[in-house]
Amino acid sequence: MGRRRRSIPWAFVLAIAIALVCIAYVFGVAWWQSRGSSHYSAADLYLTRMIDVTIAAWLFWIGASIGSFLNVVAWRMPRHESVNGRSYCPRCRSRLKARDNFPVFGWLALRGRCRTCRLPISPRYPIVEAVVGISVTLVGIAEIYQLSLPYQSTHFHGGALWTPVVDQAVLGTLLYHTIAIALAWAMGLIRMDGHRLPRRLTWTAAILMVGGMVAFPSVMAVPWQMQVAPDWRAGGLYFDALMRVVTALVAATFLARCLARGLCVGADLKLDPLGKSTARLVDLITVIAVPALVIGWQSLSAVLVVGSLVALGLGRVLPSRTDMLGRFAIAMPITLSLAILFWRPLHALPLWPSVGSSPWVLLAAAGVALIAPVWLRESTTASPQTMPIRAADADDEDADDDDDDDDDEDEEKDADAEDEEDDEDGNEDVAEEGEIAGDEGDDPHEPTKPTVLEN
To answer: Where is this region: Disordered (predicted)?
Structure first.
């Protein structure tokens, strides 16, 4: 009888690998910087580089913890459950221990299985935690070290004594952008599963994003005008903050209506305000409004074009059941993180639409956004009109579904009555037509179960 093969402790291996990378960074960068300086030795720079590692580790821990919470939000909110309380296994209902909730490492330590019932836990949990943690870490480092935001005072980068800048304005802006990234990820995960955006999430996003900018104008980063002075600063400009919100929401609504030609075919807020395609359009506006409030209306069209291309690339990674709107929604937090990370160099490019750009550049970017529905169009096999109604959509639209069910029952009764009359007449041709009509009266698209994600 052979020995039982021991599994690899991946959590321990990952921890050792991260520790080795951090040690290599501290000693390697300190040694490299000391070579070109006659005033500092490598030992003098160890502490400075350890600060870098500490900040990066802290940012990743915060981001991964946010990702862990977003997994709960994406699972519970569409099912009208409270996001409070301890996490539990949906199969055996046992509560998870604190160490099992440790981002990324908890799943690896459990080897992807529940500690109690030993049933598998979806790998989506550590993936979301890691991706959100990486996005928050990159944005945080870029802003704390003053690498990304335009109109921000800068100092020499890359020197031996290069240290982070931590003050009220920097931390406030970073907090605002972290909230925006978290909200964008939450919306993307929910839409990726095919659910409507919950009202609680939409109102939370509106209060935090709109209220935060109006109350603290310093988080604007860029103005709402097309031309401003080179030494423009955002602090204390409450009217400008209000105009920034208005212009961002108007731009988000306009561009969402443009993209709706491919993502929400048949949507009409006036003629069909309660339709399913219109509900998808409302979700699309909400998804686009988050990056619009962060980066401003000037660059929004270019960011959406990049996001549409990212959505195409995600088609090879995401499950095949994910529709194009879900891909686009999950592409938004990725694109938003990249836009913040490279904000300053993009702002300086003459062909990137931003404050101070030529009107022709803005019009060209908007024109490309107008043709984006060509490659963002839903597939004909799963168009918004013929797509099966998911359980979450049915819960949000009970009244519409009841009316549709009544209409379907009436059609089936009429079809059955016609079949009986045709059978009595004994006309085989007419009977065949009646059977065909009866078959067409049935709904060929059976409702599918919502995407089940173990929590």
So the answer is: 382-455
Q: Are 385 and 265 in contact (CB under 8 A)?
A: yes
Which of these ranges, 92-101, 239-248, 367-376, 406-415, has the smallest mean pLDDT? 406-415
3-state secondary structure of 268: strand
Structural domain boundaries enclosing 35: 8-131
DSSP label at 279?
H
φ/ψ of residue 250, rounded to 5: -65, -45
Same domain? For 217 and 327 the reply is yes
For residues 362 and 241, membership in a common domain is answered with: yes
Which of the two residues, 422 and 31, has the higher pLDDT score?
31
- Buried/exposed 267-295: b ≥16 CB within 10 Å, e otherwise: beeeeeeebbbbbbbbbbbbbbbbbbbbb
Answer yes or no: is 267 within a domain.
yes
Is the pTM here over 0.85, yes or no? Answer: no
**261-275, 285-299, 397-411 — which is least confidently predicted?**
397-411
CB 394 within 8 A of CB 450: no
Please report where in the chains the tokens 């350890």 appear, as a residue.
50
Q: Which of 98-107, 245-254, 443-452 has the lowest mean pLDDT?
A: 443-452
